[in-house]
Design a protein that fits this description.
Layout lengths: L5 H16 L8 E4 L6 E9 L13 H6 L1 H6 L6 H13 L3 H14 L5 E3 L9 H7 L9 E6 L6 H13 L9 H13 L5 H8 L6 H22 L16 H15 L3 H16 L5 H4 L6 H10 L9 H5 L16 E3 L6 E3 L2 H9 L4 E3 L6 E3 H53 L7 H27 L6
Parallel strand pairs: 3-4
Antiparallel strand pairs: 1-2, 2-4, 5-6, 7-8
Helix pairs in contact: 5-6, 8-10, 9-10, 10-11, 11-12, 12-16, 14-17
Length: 468
């Protein structure tokens, strides 16, 4: 069926509203929509799903459309048939095949439990997925969607907030992906002019603490900046949706560690970000594993393990070695070194080059300086295995380091506790409520402390750590 024009859609919607108004008021379906201070009452009509337009501004598919090269030439006319086909494809793919099938089954069995929302000229605000699902129905009588019609005076800012508020009324809706949610926050901040506190309220972020919610919104905008920085690291820039495999917990760690290193050593901060990205690109995503990755991890732990790999090991140093086309980083944690088998002189490991390899579209990898070609996915799997094994080794080393540092840390902690006890005694020494019973209890505790300190001193002397 050919797509109708905008004028035809407006006329069609107007006709359906007039037909509705011919019915007695008690037979009208009216939807109360969250709209500023007071609810907005909108009439509900039934319209063929072929006659409505999918919403290219839907925040469920914004990131996917940004990543789609076809969309670049179609975005200027999002209501064209070609653009609508691309939008529908991404609307469908936003759910798994199983989830999309379950939605269709539910709509066939139970129909729509609640109407969608549409502009006066036939563009859906929400219910895009339901419309796409209904278009698959064989029975023409089933291919009708119930929608509440917004007045012509509704503004884009109001519709963006309406979509968000409807999404927050969860029901059976699928959550926004991480990148789509971040893009929504950015739009509300930059294009809609909402404050961080207002955005937090709309998204129900820390509703019990307004300041905490506003701080979280500000942090999430900074997280989006970090994602965009990481997109540009590989030679073939990453799609925004690549980062939907990670979580806010990952991004909190990345933000804290990256900015913690940035002022002291930009090279270390950069090396940490690249190491983080290489881990994610190789599908090492559990938070407890990624937290063991630091700026020197790839050279100190991953590479030695990669050199042991049966298939890739002989080429590991060549794949990871700096090509010479880029400037050598300054000395520091961010310029971790590797020593090649053929040469004892240290050479810097190029984590970015490894990222280029595992994220490239070309599935064949030429080993520099050799006629050998390796499958990209084999390299990726080998690096993944080396990272996971390296994490285990780092954990063992950290436990040993913790064990060696434990005595010093214990004594330092005890000293701090004693200092706090001194201040506490000073505060109540002359207090009349500090009675004989409490003094006796404190005396007993002090004598036990003295015995414990004496035992520690004897052990330190016996171990030749302190002199008598």
């Amino acid at each position: 069926m050919a797509q109708i024009t905008k004028a035809q859609r407006i006329e069609r919607v107007d006709q359906l509203l007039k037909e509705l108004n011919k019915q007695p008021p008690e037979r009208h379906e009216v939807e109360r929509l969250p709209w500023g201070g007071d609810p907005l009452l909108c009439p509900v009509i039934k319209i063929p799903v072929e006659e409505v337009l999918l919403n290219h501004r839907s925040h469920r598919v914004r990131a996917q459309l940004q990543d789609d090269p076809q969309w670049q030439s179609l975005s200027n006319d999002p209501h064209s048939e070609a653009a609508q086909r691309v939008i529908e494809q991404h609307v469908r793919n936003a759910r798994t095949a199983t989830e999309f099938g379950a939605l269709k089954d539910s709509l066939l069995r139970e129909g729509q439990t609640a109407p969608g929302v549409m502009t006066h000229d036939g563009v859906l605000v929400n219910a895009n997925t339901r419309a796409a699902a209904m278009r698959d129905f064989e029975d023409p009588a089933k291919r009708y969607i119930r929608v509440a019609v917004l007045p012509p005076t509704a503004q884009r800012d109001e519709m963006a907030l309406l979509e968000l508020r409807l999404q927050m009324q969860k029901e059976l809706k699928v959550d926004y992906s991480l990148t789509n949610e971040l893009l929504f926050i950015e739009e509300l901040s930059n294009e809609r002019g909402l404050t961080d506190g207002q955005i937090a309220r709309e998204l129900r972020i820390s509703p019990e603490n307004e300041k905490k919610g506003a701080n979280e919104v500000r942090l999430r905008l900074q997280m989006l900046d970090l994602i965009r920085d990481m997109q540009k690291i590989p030679a073939e820039p990453l799609q925004l949706t690549f980062f939907d495999k990670i979580s806010y917990e990952h991004l909190r760690d990345l933000h804290r560690n990256y900015h913690g290193a940035l002022q002291d050593d930009p090279n270390e901060a950069r090396a940490y970000m690249e190491s983080f990205l290489l881990s994610i690109a190789c599908d090492v995503t559990p938070v407890h594993q990624v937290r063991k990755i630091d700026a020197s991890f790839m050279a100190g732990y991953m590479l030695p393990q990669l050199e042991e790999d049966e298939e890739i090991g002989d080429y590991a140093s060549k794949l990871a070695a700096r090509t010479g086309n880029e400037p050598t980083p300054t000395t520091g944690a961010g310029s971790a070194l590797l020593t090649s088998i053929e040469d004892d002189d240290p050479k810097p490991i190029d984590v970015k080059q490894l990222i280029d390899i595992v994220t490239r579209r070309d599935k064949r990898v030429e080993v520099p300086g050799t006629p050998v070609t390796i499958e990209r996915d084999d390299v990726k799997q080998a690096i993944k295995g080396a990272i996971i094994t390296g994490i285990k080794e780092k954990r063992r080393n950290d436990r040993e380091a913790d064990k060696l540092e434990a005595p010093t840390e214990g004594v330092k902690h005890a000293a701090r506790e004693v200092t706090q006890a001194i201040e506490a005694v000073r505060a109540i020494a002359n207090d009349p409520d500090f009675d004989a019973k409490r003094k006796k209890t404190l005396e007993a505790a002090y004598r036990k402390l003295k015995r414990t300190v004496r035992d520690l001193e004897q052990l330190l002397v016996k171990s030749n750590i302190v002199s008598e």
